[in-house]
Amino acid sequence: MRSQFLFAAAALLAASPAAGAVTVLGNSSARLCYEAAESHMSPSMTLIRTCDDAMRDEGLSGYDRVATLVNRGILKARLGNLDEAIVDYDAALRSDPNEAEAYLNKGFALLHLPDAARQARPMFDSALEKKTRRPELAYYGRAVANELSGEVRAAYDDYRQASRLDPKWQDPKADLARFQVR
Fold first, then answer.
1. For 46, 80, 88, 133, which has the most beta carbons within 10 A of its beta carbon?
2. What is d(CA 122, CA 103) in angstroms, rounded to the nearest whole number?
3. Sign of CA dihedral 137, 54, 96, 62
């Protein structure tokens, strides 16, 4: 059963353009990095190098630097480089401890590491507390973390909330269908 939930979480990470990319405006490498994180296309090392170029060459504002770290982390995570993605999310959080999307994305990366579900839950809690732009994803990720940790009632409640926030999203509905409420 555990592998089923990990697969669902992996599918969510791979299928979604980003758990929560952070917007960067303008015509810069940082903007291209953001657009890649938001894209449905598979990322490439070239796109990650675009993010690297932005970090190195563009004299980014504090906000754009944090955004680019999160967006580069998303691309690394989608390529399966979870440890490197977490390094980017942690760097973003050191610069801005209120960046909700860094918590959200770090939570999803942690869900893919062995025995890290308990570490992922506080990331989703923080993303919600800091007002992530994608609360439905935070509730869904926290539901998966809860279920992997054996907290079935909390998982059910979070799947329901994710479904309420995005009624057209089928994944929470499918997960809710596995539960029997007594």
1. 88
2. 9
3. negative
Confidence class of residue 40 from pLDDT cuts 50, 70 and 90? confident
Q: In Å, how far are 17, 18, 61, 132 from 146, measured between CA atoms?
A: 24, 21, 37, 19
Question: How do residues 79-97 score in pLDDT, each as one tens digit?
Answer: 999 999 999 999 999 999 9
Q: Please give the biggest Cα pair distance in the chain.
A: 59
CA 128, 134, 137, 61: dihedral to nearest 10 degrees? -80
Q: Which of 10-19, 26-35, 54-63, 67-76 has the lowest mean pLDDT?
A: 10-19
CA distance 180 to 57: 55
Residue 10 has pLDDT above 80, yes or no: no
Pairwise CA distance, residues 146 & 161, whole Å: 14
Rounded-to-integer distance, Cα 138 and Cα 114, Å: 20
As a dihedral over the C-alpha atoms of residue 116, residue 118, residue 120, residue 122, rounded to 10 degrees, the angle is: -150
**What's the rounded Cα separation, in Å, for the pair 91 and 124?**
18
Q: What are phi and psi of 36, to 5 degrees?
A: -65, -40
